[in-house]
Design a protein that fits this description.
The protein is of the alpha+beta class. Among the domains are: 119 residues, C2 domain (Immunoglobulin-like); 136 residues, Immunoglobulin-like. Helix content is 20%, strand content 31%. The strands form five sheets. Strands 13, 14, 15, 17 and 18 form a five-stranded antiparallel sheet that branches. A hairpin with a 2-residue loop joins strand 13 and strand 14. Helix 3 packs across helix 4. It starts with 17 loop residues before the first helix and ends with a strand.
Length: 467
């Protein structure tokens, strides 16, 4: 494979010896790739040396793991010694004796037999730590006293005792008057009012110009048929302003309602003494029809409004019944505020018994719009002849500005036609419906409800008064 290197013959010119030729033949060299370059052969790999290196690495790792395990064991044993020193010499029986009363009693009985209660050492510091020790003998006895049982009655109890008889037997010995709640604002010296009584309080704050009316309760209200309970409520007005109305909640099925409500009216300080407070009590039936039970008129000029909520009471003034000897007139009022108009409908009249009727006598109604004492407009219905219960159903519209509501009123006059053309018609009776300055009772309430319910027709019967 290799080339046999021959000695250069340029030296002595002689041929090489046999020994030299044999030595040269035994040596082989890799071929030279270039002139002047000699390639060296790498040393052979020793497998025994690699095996010893791996074994030494595994042994060193095992020694490190054993050393770590030894350190963990030493640390845990040290922590266990500390915990045992902190617990001291308490045993499982001691611990159970502190949590279980039954075991405590067992230990106490054993202590009595042995000559005394078992004791423990007091708190002793060990390794700068305080070890608690409990004395079992100092734990108090938690034994409950024996239950007291009421002894049976001496008499023999009947076997058939009903629940009602048992309750009556329990309540027979009670003094019920000791459990009654007394009202602080009741005036026991005043007799009951036949029309009802109402309690309220007044406070005026001049700084904010507000009058606060606190409605407390009402009593002695007349009942319905067979003294049945009512559903009363109260409306509050501060006259002569009849457009501002406030209403309480309805109290169901009672003749002594308790309201406990407050109402605020904005009134200037220079005008407060000119106002009159009106409290009107109503009842609403199942058909949603309201019935007036009475009212209270309280002038504020004679009241001390600086007292802080002093409770006062007033008797209700009964409302006049709608049955007069001259008869009744049924009219409807509707207030339209955006148009500033009042629509009036004359419906009918009834019980005009005092009329001396003949086929030629007619009955009609004259409607007059008054502002103060000045007549603004007048209308009249068609005369109905030969009847005591005429029916009209005629409507009229009157312009009433908002500023003129407090000074306006409407007069309804029932007229009888004259027997001849040359005589004047005869005035039979009249009704005035208007503001506080001109009307009262049901006539005033009709006007107030008309203003409080705009764009709604409010119809009422009114008793005719003599002219």
């Amino acid at each position: 494979m290799g080339h046999i290197m021959l000695r250069d013959l340029s030296g002595d010119g002689g041929p090489p010896s046999l020994k030299e030729m044999s030595n040269e033949a035994g040596r082989t060299e890799p071929p030279a790739h270039a002139e002047g370059t000699v390639q060296q052969v790498p040393a052979a790999f020793d497998p025994l040396a690699g095996t010893w290196t791996i074994a030494l690495g595994i042994g060193a790792g095992a020694l490190v793991i054993l050393f770590i395990i030894l350190l963990i064991c030493l640390y845990r044993s040290k922590c266990g010694n500390k915990a045992s020193k902190m617990r001291g010499d308490l045993t499982l029986d001691d611990i159970s004796g502190y949590t279980c009363i039954g075991d405590y009693k067992r230990r106490a009985s054993v202590a009595e037999v042995s000559g005394g209660p078992p004791t423990r050492k007091s708190s002793v510091p060990v390794n700068n730590q305080l070890v608690r020790s409990v004395t079992v003998g100092s734990i108090p006895d938690f034994c409950l006293p024996p239950e007291k049982v009421q002894p049976p009655s001496s008499g023999t109890q009947r076997k058939s005792t009903t629940a009602l008889q048992f309750q009556q037997g329990l309540l027979s010995g009670l003094q019920l008057e000791l459990y009654r709640c007394s009202d602080e604002d009741d005036d026991y010296d005043a007799p009951p009012s036949p029309a009802g009584r109402i309690w309220f309080a007044l406070v005026y704050d001049a700084a904010v110009e507000q009058l606060t009316v606190t409605l407390n309760k009402a009593k002695y209200l007349p009942g319905r048929a067979k003294n049945a309970p009512r559903d009363p409520f109260v409306k509050l007005y501060l006259l002569p302003d009849e457009r501002t109305c406030q209403q309480s909640k309805v109290r169901r099925k009672t003749l002594s309602p308790k309201f406990n409500e407050s109402f605020v009216f904005q009134v200037p300080a220079d005008n407060i003494l000119e106002r009159i407070l009106r409290l009107s009590v109503y009842d609403v039936d199942k058909r949603r029809v309201r019935h007036s039970l009475g009212h209270v008129l309280l002038p504020l000029a004679g009241m001390d409004l600086t007292k802080n909520g002093e409770m006062i009471w007033r008797d209700l003034e009964p409302v006049s019944q709608a049955s007069a000897s001259l008869g009744d007139l049924n009219v409807s009022l509707t207030y339209v505020p955006n148009l500033e108009r009042i629509k009036i409908v004359v419906l009918r009249a009834r019980n005009l018994c005092k009329l001396d009727l003949d086929p030629e006598t007619g009955v009609y109604v004259k409607v007059q719009h008054m502002v103060g004492r000045k007549l603004i407009k007048s209308k009249k219905t068609v005369a109905q002849r030969g009847t005591c219960d005429p029916v009209y159903n005629e409507s009229y519209s009157f312009a009433v500005p908002g500023r003129a509501l407090d000074s306006s009123n409407f007069q309804f006059t029932v007229m009888c036609t004259a027997p001849s053309r040359f005589s004047q018609d005869i005035e039979y009776g009249r009704v005035v419906v208007g503001s506080f300055m001109f009307a009262h009772g049901e006539d005033l309430l009709h006007w107030q409800e008309m203003i409080a319910q705009p764009r709604s027709a409010v119809a009422k019967w009114h008793a005719l008064a003599p002219p």
